[in-house]
Design a protein that fits this description.
alpha+beta, 528 residues, five-stranded mixed beta sheet
């Protein structure tokens, strides 16, 4: 087939089904072609080429269908639903040598293969001028922020988690209050959910205010407390001499935090944490966000546009985006204007927490508005601190649909909002945001595989796969904002819904009637 010349290095054909009809929902007709399954994707090859990386496939189900007027023969439909909630329909003739049931079965087996079997491990592409695996070094980033003994700013770098025994989902290198002993830190780990202690994300270069992050405390119904945990909070507070109050930002709705008490967790009891203020920021959980995106996608994919704006509003997606931006803006106000420190957590500290800390750091620190700085931010706040990319995107090989959620897409949508409100502030452009979301699903790079550093080290991703940053930085001009004007000013975004924009460039990317231009065609071609 002519399609073979489009194979990526290391891509192999598994199945080929000829005499297949694809339903073009835009033209509302059936197109004849062949359906090809490779180690990387499902491809329909006909008058048009439809390429779906396996990492994007959510479900693949056979559907019975009556005889087709187009072909005059009994048809069997195969429906592929993608993780951005598109539905693609392919018709198989009853006597097709490659039965629909077999085609679907092979796809399902591929979707359940362990992460070590994903395409990233067999892709042979190289980027000789860029090694993305060398981009981020935790110690160097802490030193850049001023965390070193000579500064005596109340913080130290520790290798206590070097073998991931303190916390299996945290990075090996952490920054903690300098007066905390290793034994005390271990006791804090036992008290915080999944051992995710309070650790430094960012420190203000002038006023010493900090952003720290952790998971919820294990208070439970009996109101358990930990002397060491209380000391850790005191030491975080004492490290900042400019404000005597520590703001604890619980990302969740208060009702959700209280419900966690029935499962042995909860939130801080303020009577045990003097000089602290606890606030809840009403960011909903992964299940609400998944449903919100589904409703948004239904509105986008609907043929009836008469209720489009109403359906977009009813999805709640823009409201969720607004709420996350508001939380980040409140953090900036505390740190920049009141010179206070902020501790952020949700339940486990790996979904809503990095959304808030990451956005606040972009608003506060011009370094994270550069392309390299933004890449470092993602490596640090999402990847090294254990955002569960495999689980949330469905690459864990377990097929746990109920644990999937658009956390990373939502963060990128918030960054997109910043790019719209501050068009000169970010060195990178919208293309970078879109590509990163797509590649987090596509499984071409080792960067977004697995759920934490420990798992990536065990799988030797740095030795056996390519980094997405190698791909990005080898063609950096493509991702550069031509309007960029560096500034040291702190950014204060609006969360007003009138200012929140629907991200057309992402949600309409498969609709040529909106983006029938050279850029979109090249973007989709590069992804395929």
């Amino acid at each position: 087939m002519n399609f073979v010349k489009h194979f990526l290095k290391g891509e192999q054909c598994i199945l080929l089904a000829a005499e297949i009809y694809y339903r073009d929902e835009l033209k509302r007709n059936w197109t004849k072609g062949s359906l090809v399954l490779t180690t990387y994707r499902v491809v329909f090859v006909g008058d048009q080429m439809i390429s779906i990386p396996l990492g994007f496939v959510n479900t693949c189900d056979p559907i019975k269908k009556k005889a087709s007027k187009k072909t005059g023969s009994h048809q069997k439909k195969l429906e592929i639903e993608t993780k951005d909630f598109r539905r693609l329909h392919f018709n198989f003739a009853k006597n097709n040598p490659c039965p629909r049931s077999h085609f679907a079965s092979v796809i399902k087996n591929l979707l359940l293969q362990p992460p070590e079997k994903l395409f990233a491990f067999t892709w042979k592409e190289t980027f000789p001028n860029s090694d993305g695996w060398k981009l981020y070094n935790a110690e160097e980033e802490f030193i850049r922020m001023g965390i070193k003994p000579s500064n005596n700013n109340g913080w130290k770098i520790t290798l206590l988690n070097q073998k991931y025994t303190l916390c299996s989902t945290y990075p090996a290198v952490l920054a903690v209050p300098s007066r905390m002993t290793d034994k005390e830190i271990e006791q804090v780990s036992a008290y915080r959910s999944r051992g995710r202690i309070q650790t430094l994300s960012w420190i203000h270069p002038k006023n010493n205010a900090t952003i720290t992050r952790c998971s919820q405390p294990r208070t439970g119904l009996m109101g358990k407390r930990s002397v060491e945990d209380e000391k850790m909070i005191v030491e975080i507070l004492n490290a900042n001499k400019n404000n005597s109050v520590l703001q604890i930002f619980d990302a969740r709705p208060s009702a959700n935090a209280k419900a966690q008490q029935f499962m042995g967790a909860g939130t801080e009891n303020m009577s045990h944490y003097p000089n602290c203020v606890l606030t809840f920021h009403n960011i909903d959980n992964i299940h609400v966000m998944r449903e919100s995106l589904k409703n948004l996608s239904d509105a986008v994919n609907s043929e009836d546009d008469s209720q489009f704006l109403t359906n977009i509003d009813n999805s709640g997606w823009l409201k969720h985006t607004s709420r996350i931006l508001l939380s980040a803006a409140k953090m900036v106000d505390v740190i920049n204007n009141k010179k206070g420190s902020v501790l952020v957590h949700c339940s486990d500290g790996w979904d809503r927490t990095p959304q808030m800390t990451g956005l606040a750091m972009i608003l506060l620190d011009p370094y994270y508005r550069t392309t390299v700085g933004f890449e470092v931010l993602i490596e640090k706040e999402f990847l090294s601190y254990g955002h569960q990319f495999a689980l949330r995107t469905g690459h864990d090989g377990a097929g746990r649909l109920g644990e999937r959620s658009p956390v990373f897409l939502q963060f990128m949508d918030c960054v997109y909002q910043l790019s719209q409100q501050f068009p000169n502030a970010l060195q990178f452009n919208e293309t970078l945001l879109r590509v990163l979301v797509e590649e987090s699903f596509a499984c071409r790079f080792g960067t977004f595989l697995f759920d934490c550093d420990r798992e990536r080290e065990k799988a030797r991703v740095k030795e056996t796969t390519q980094s997405v940053w190698s791909f990005i930085n080898s063609d950096i001009k493509r991702y550069t904002n031509v309007l960029y004007k560096p500034t040291t000013e702190v950014l204060v975004p609006s969360h007003n819904l009138k200012k929140i924009k629907f991200w057309e460039g992402y949600h309409f990317k498969h609709m040529p009637e909106f983006f029938d231009n050279k850029w979109t065609k090249n973007f989709l071609k590069r992804l395929a």
